[in-house]
Design brief:
Its EC number is 3.5.1.1. By secondary structure, the protein is of the alpha/beta class. Helix content is 35%, strand content 13%. It has a 4-stranded parallel beta sheet with strand order 1-2-3-4, sandwiched between helices. The longest helix is centred in the middle third of the chain and has 13 residues.
Amino acid sequence: MVNITSQILTSPSNKFSPDLLRDGLPRVDIVYSHTGSDGAIVRACVAAGARGIVSAGFGPGLGTPAEIAAFGEAIEDSNGQVTVVQSSRLGAGVVVDSKQHQKLGIIAGNDLNPQKARILLALCLANSWTHDQIRKTFELA
């Protein structure tokens, strides 16, 4: 490679501050859906102090009915202090924002896999972002 230069086309809107990570990131757990899941894992994550949960659901990002109910309970019982993001355990594909998820306050993870969704959610929570700010961030991810 000869005569290659880099160009900065845009600058970040916010400067990253390492102070954000001084106390570590908030606890965000990943719950993998499986046939017959009764939501006990979701309740255990909340009891262990999770501030966020990423659901790695079936196909288009769906959990079992019991899991979905447990996610809704986690959000409601915590007065919004627990944030849930729905992703998919498949290799590719988009999780859309369903009416059921909107009703329960579950955020669609777009096309992020569970691991990437977990990191993004932890960073959002570390910044003390609101539910709407987090939802918009995942819409753009």
